Amino acid sequence: MTLLFDNYCRLGDYRDRFSERFSRTSQIEVDDVSAVILRTLPNWLGQLMGVRNLIVRPFGLSGSGLGSFEESLKRSSQSVGDEIGPWKVIERNESEIVLHGVDKHLEFHCSLELAARQDEYELSFSTTVHIKNALGRRYFFFVRPFHRAIVQAMLRKIAAELAAIPVHSQANAAS
């Protein structure tokens, strides 16, 4: 796990970490990942979230959508206290952003980390979930396979796009 994220791992009933490696010759930072996330969201994710919201509404669970998620990722960097969709940035450094989300059935923390080793990068997404009650157990039983599939698909797409961004485009995006 990661240094910032380690602080939250002991709180969880479920933990995972997925990583993708890619090569590039110019430097990138964890904030560069935000812009790429928007372009790599699976087309079906918005529809899936709409179905999820319809199913959980009668149970009093908060709905989530991609609209606020997309708006928040348009910022050039994510600061502590910023909201990214239904999640809040609670810690960050130059290589990692930790998010927190809470509802009456579960609480979770996620970490997006970008580690550099010369011309090779490793992009990792870690999650820990604290299940609060029986509703949370049932909910997460059904959500878990989708979570795994979505995170793994997004990491592959994000890593491929970050590896393919021309050096001059990255410099222009920063100015």
Quickly list its features.
175 residues, disordered C terminus, single chain, Alpha-D-Glucose-1,6-Bisphosphate, Chain A, domain 4, alpha+beta, six-stranded antiparallel β-sheet
Notes on the protein architecture:
By secondary structure, this protein is of the alpha+beta class. It has a single domain (6-169), classed as Alpha-D-Glucose-1,6-Bisphosphate, Chain A, domain 4 (2-Layer Sandwich). The protein contains 6 helices and 6 strands; from the N terminus they run H-E-H-H-H-E-E-E-E-E-H-H. Strands 1-6-5-4-3-2 form a 6-stranded antiparallel beta sheet. Helix 2 (30-40) crosses helix 5. It is globular, with a radius of gyration of 16 Å. 19% of the residues are buried.
Question: What's the layout of helices and strands?
Answer:
Elements: H1 6-9, E1 14-23, H2 30-40, H3 45-56, H4 66-73, E2 83-84, E3 87-92, E4 96-102, E5 106-117, E6 120-131, H5 134-164, H6 167-174
Antiparallel strand pairs: 1-6, 2-3, 3-4, 4-5, 5-6
Helix pairs in contact: 2-5
Number of strands: 6
Rg, rounded, reads 16 Å
Q: Write down the domain tally.
A: 1
On the 0 to 100 scale, the average pLDDT is: 79
Taking the alpha carbons of the first and last residues, their distance comes to: 33 Å
SSE topology string: HEHHHEEEEEHH
Number of helices: 6
Q: What name is given to the CATH topology?
A: Alpha-D-Glucose-1,6-Bisphosphate, Chain A, domain 4
Find the structural class using helix and strand composition.
alpha+beta
CATH class group: Alpha Beta
Q: Considering DSSP H and I runs of 4 or more, what fraction of the residues is helical? A: 40-55%
How big a fraction of the residues is strand?
25-35%
The description of the largest β-sheet is: 6 strands, antiparallel
